[in-house]
Amino acid sequence: MINAIIIEDEKSSMEYLLSILKKNHPNITICGWASDVDAAVALITSKDPDIVFLDIQLNDGSGFDVLDRLESSMPFEVIFTTGFLDYKERAMDYFAFYYLNKPVQEDEIKKVLNMYELKRSAFDMRKYQAFKNQLESKNHTITIFERNEYISLKFSDIIYCEAGGNYTHIYNTKGKSLLSSKHLKKIEDIIDSTDFYRVHRSFLVNLTHVKEFTRDGLLVMSDGNEIIISIRNRKKVVDFLTDYMEK
Predict the structure, then answer these.
(1) 88 and 107 share a domain?
(2) What pLDDT was estimated at residue 41?
(3) Measured over all CA atoms, what is the biggest interatomic distance in the chain, rounded to whole angstroms?
(4) CA nearest 63: which of 108, 15, 117, 99?
(5) Is the pTM of this model over 0.85?
(6) Low-confidence ranges of the chain (pLDDT < 50)
């Protein structure tokens, strides 16, 4: 059996989630429900659950407040629930957290719990801290996992990103190249900034670091590196850069 706790400040949302779990997942026992930070911390501490269904926004704080008040070693897994469909979803996907979008759908719960059954993992504190820092930076940073550590990088410090198969090389103002395990399209979705533009299928550039460009499709970046735009996209990219620089 899997013991679970629901942390949710809306009783109707809690009851809805509870009904789906009882109907479709008899192997999960709900050990309790809490609607505020203090009660949530106390309940998790006393019940020692395998899973915590955790709402990101609570009336008196957030799910982050709950986790921050617990011991650094958390033997349970967290399944975030959220009504936000924009950055939080992309960030959670990027950090490979389990999460459910509200209103919760039965098929989504099944998919998430199936993944949990396969992994049966505990909560990753380093991953959580990187995720939390990225959200609190108000979409101005990206966090890269490299050489067994999480590195936070401001968008403004990224010069350009270059595809390398299923990986992406991220070049920054410190003269370093960070290697992300995410492909370039995923990096583009995470950054989601008007200052970044896909000038080539293999290059995503920070337009604020374009020092010079020519009608022949040559971009000179702030670090001195040059990027050649493909002939097929050359006119479109050059016209876009011209308009951007004139603003």
Answers:
(1) yes
(2) 95
(3) 67
(4) 99
(5) no
(6) none
